[in-house]
Amino acid sequence: MIGRNLITPAKNTWCPGCGNFSLQFALKSVLGELEQSGTSLDDVVLVTGIGCHAKMADYLNLNSIYSIHGRTIPAAIGIKLANPRLKVICCAGDGDCYAEGLDHLIFAAKRNADITVIIHNNRVYGLTTGQYTPTSPLGFRGRSTPGGTTELPINPLELMLASGATFVARGYTRKMEQLRSLVKQGLLHRGFSFIDVLQICATYNNMTDYYHEHVYDLKDHDISGFETAFRKAREWDYNSDARIALGLFYQQVMPTYEDRVFAHPPDNIDSQKRIEEILQEKM
Ligand SMILES: Cc1ncc(C[n+]2csc(CCOP(=O)(O)OP(=O)(O)O)c2C)c(N)n1
Ligand SMILES: [Mg+2]
After folding, report:
1. How far is the CA of 110 from the centre of ligand 1 (A)?
2. pTM score above 0.85
3. CATH of the domain at 44
4. pLDDT tens readout for residues 257-268
5. With helix as H, strand as E and coil as C, how does 116-139 read?
6. Is residue 244 in some structural domain?
7. In a domain, 109, yes or no
8. Within 6 Å (CB) of ligand 1, which residues are found?
């Protein structure tokens, strides 16, 4: 159905001021535009993790699946392999993808799986009431770290570049026009698109003032240069006075995981027959 209302009637339980509202608006707006230019929303699938961000599956009127915490990406890749025609979007948490599911994130980048991963990076486990995540600031005080964390955060952009991601971007939920543009470019990118989105958790990690003072937009930046992107990604070394660049850091066109998988079916083997043979051998 064309022109569907993308917002469901489900009761919204995000806290007032939560960055998830901006991402919901960005997705709604971009998907509406893509539909206008010929993409059927029936061919779009949203996969979420488990957490506050995951309620996107309840609030956006799309084909969607709540996966298991940390397993957003394998579910998305499975869907894409089963039906490569689909556009598969992951809305995942920093807890989901940088902690329990980190290995899947790295492998998706390494494979250049043709999916879009949007990380709702509030730098805290929001739903479970404020434990620290791999991106929480040093000294973060939460439920599991009442005395403050003693670890430096990881740098997701640096990690994704090193892992082979072909589209690497950082957005911020208070920069709506840029966020919309990054989401749209990510969805149109053929290959693994990764967008780390800084968002505040209004209840457990409200960094609005800090981000307000430190973010800036990338300008005159060459998105084809790996070294330049890497240097830019490392600029935010998590020192409290470092500047935080926003925008598209890197983009490259490469064969996708699905291209490679489907270009190399097992030679002369009827796969169903072979599965049956293997099962027989095991009995
Ligand atoms: C396998 C598994 N491990 C842990 C949990 C508990 N759990 C549910 S949500 C969550 C944290 C979610 O944090 P994040 O992914 O950052 O999402 P947010 O709520 O911040 O949006 C955890 C640890 C779970 N449900 N399943
Ligand atoms: Mg989180």
Report:
1. 25
2. yes
3. 3.40.50.970
4. 999 988 876 665
5. EEEEEECCCECCCCCECCCCCCCC
6. yes
7. yes
8. 49-53, 68-70, 93-96, 100, 120, 122, 124-128, 133
